[in-house]
């Protein structure tokens, strides 16, 4: 199962109070900055849930 980004809650990387913490925490590079927008690379996600647990906006969930 992969993660889903709620773009309304996320607010893009520039407006993230965690400065893109999810990207920094992802050791599999499943989350990337795509011109200021958070993008998921499904095939890289290993379901560790670090991004979900640490998102300051609660914008990441299981799809």
UniProtKB/TrEMBL annotation:
Gene Ontology MF: a single term: oxidoreductase activity
Residues covered by the 4Fe-4S ferredoxin-type domain: 36-63
InterPro entries the record matches: 4Fe4S_Fe-S-bd, 4Fe4S_Fe_S_CS
PROSITE patterns: 4FE4S_FER_1, 4FE4S_FER_2
Name this polypeptide is given: Ferredoxin
């Amino acid at each position: 199962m992969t993660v889903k980004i709620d773009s309304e809650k996320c607010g893009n990387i520039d407006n993230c109070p965690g400065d893109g913490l999810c990207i920094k925490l992802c050791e599999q590079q499943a989350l990337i900055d795509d011109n200021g927008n958070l993008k998921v690379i499904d095939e890289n996600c290993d379901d560790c849930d670090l991004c979900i647990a640490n998102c300051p906006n609660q914008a990441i969930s299981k799809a």
